[in-house]
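Blinded run. Sample ID left blank on purpose so nobody reads anything into the name before looking at the predicted structure. Input follows.
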Amino acid sequence: MALSHSPPWRWNWGRRGRGRRPKPRIIDFRLPPVVFMPLDSTGRPMGGDPVELMPDELEALRLVYFLGLNQEQAAQRMGVSRGTLWRALSSGRKKIIKAIVERRPLVISR
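Blinded prediction complete.
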């Protein structure tokens, strides 16, 4: 299955409270909202609160683990620092593992 390629877009967290606005991230991959649902032994969906994977976490995971870029290259492509990319990778990995271990739905949001 070929992955659809769209022009890069800028994604940013909503501003909450006081302080500096978060820097927008350049996302070069767009996936429609998807839910991965765990199934029990009879094939029925299992419940639980969903775990939401944010667009910057998915992009960081895609660049490093799917495309094989190093963290410096991936950070440059996303327009963020290497530390910011590392935090997105760490958060994304934790969320995926949490969804698997706790048998919760994994939601990839826009």
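Unblinding after everyone has recorded impressions. Helices lie at 55-66, 71-78, 82-101.
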